[in-house]
Design a protein that fits this description.
2 copies of one chain form a homodimer. By secondary structure, chain A is an all-alpha fold. Chain A is built from 11 helices and no strands. Chain A has helices at residues 21-35, 42-48, 53-59, 69-83, 91-102, 110-122, 124-128, 130-149, 156-178, 184-196, 201-206. The longest helix of chain A has 23 residues, at 156-178. The first copy, chain A, is globular. The two termini of chain A are 31 Å apart. At the A-B interface, helix 7, helix 8, helix 9, helix 10 and helix 11 of A face helix 7, helix 8, helix 9, helix 10 and helix 11 of B. The structure holds a DNA duplex.
DNA sequence: ATGATTTTCGGCACTCAGTGACGAATGGCA
DNA sequence: TGCCATTCGTCACTGAGTGCCGAAAATCAT
């Protein structure tokens, strides 16, 4: 979060950076919330971080990418968690544990997380930018399933599991960001358990919603 | 497909259209295949249809929207099929039947379908444009699940089912467009059955792929 | 047939995202 | 002080998408 100052090796060679990816993200998040995504120009984001427009595009490939930093690191967390998972654990159970472990946010980070997720699911242009990032998540799951089931990664079932797991998690995210009456992890757990149970009618009709208990 | 000429009420009031959404789609599909999506400008698509750039944007809101015509009508098909489904059928079973019924393409349309799907899953910019169209599909499923389970549409389980079903179908689409060794419906059926079975380890490891039989 | 009405089209001008090129700025190092 | 590495800013350019307005092409009424 604020590890930009300390994480410097202290002796770098060239001109020091005038900003950071994180600083641009914070500025963008604030401006998007104040005036909307489409109404905010890249010039404004760059100016808020005290840097030029061209420099913004050296940190991010596109205007919408500025909100996907933390998500991408979360994918890496899941990938490494799955790599260390014991071989006797059922596939979906291993995936569920890894996803839950990667989504434990400290209370201080929750408000920002909520604002970011609300933007990502509300603004169509931002929702569109999700595709490439979701792809990385799905591949992390699919690769694990393929290893465990001894199938090539491009075959049907690994693909299904990867995408279905992401779909369940996105449903939990949306449900949580729309109305935060319980911990995010509770929703993720309920969604993934329903998926593993086969989405049968009795599971679906059981409780209106997994309210906190 | 070619119902543009006949479907005219014969006496319309103003200047007749110089092209059609379908004609623009065909021109775009050809150009995208020849030179790539990003390398094709809207000017070229419009010129190929004998119309101006400005007119293209009267038929489609964005360059990428030009390939989503048939998908959107398919969503409407699924929606109406689910509306007529008998009440005693299990939810996932009803969804599976509706999806399979909506995906019966005639042999003549298959080559174009394949080219379009390959583009949509290959070009990142086109994959990004999928979000809003997928959203409509998911809502069609979620609304049905919500009705059947007596829950509000925004609650967790309808969301999960809607997204998970789409996820399974997308996996089948990709698997099929990458290597067409079986009918599309076979892959869709296998993916949806696996989802309903709970994605357990024995299901996933059963057969490498549901090759045609 | 002529004019009014209706609908689509074309051209123009504009904003903004994204990219490539190039030189200037700013630090460490010999 | 000179050399090198890295980041930054400026400029110029392409292309997507939008608003505006007048022209074109058809039907309808008189």
């Amino acid at each position: 979060m604020t590890d930009d100052v300390l994480a410097r090796p202290a002796n770098r060679r060239g001109r020091p950076p005038g900003t950071s990816a994180r600083e641009l993200e914070v500025a963008a998040l604030r401006l998007f919330g104040e005036q909307g995504f489409h109404e905010t120009t890249v010039d404004q984001i760059a100016a808020a971080a005290g840097v030029s427009r061209r420099t913004f595009f050296r940190y991010y490939d596109a205007k919408a990418d500025v909100l996907w930093n933390e998500f991408d690191t979360e994918v890496e967390t899941i990938r490494s968690l799955l790599a260390e998972t014991p071989a006797d654990l059922p596939v979906l159970e291993a995936v569920r544990r890894a996803v839950l472990a990667a989504n434990h946010y400290s209370a201080a980070d929750v408000p920002e997380l909520r604002r970011r997720m609300t933007l990502l699911s509300t603004v169509p242009e931002l929702a569109a930018s999700a595709a490439v990032h979701y792809d990385a998540w799905e591949r992390a799951i699919s690769a694990f399933v393929a290893r465990r089931s001894g199938q090539p990664e491009e075959s049907l079932y690994p693909l299904v599991v990867g995408r279905a797991v992401l779909a369940a998690c996105r449903a939990a995210y949306d449900r949580w960001s729309a109305r935060a009456d319980a911990d995010l992890v509770v929703y993720l757990d309920a969604a993934l358990r329903a998926l593993a149970a086969g989405l049968t009618d009795d599971v679906l009709g059981a409780e209106p919603d997994p309210v906190a208990e």
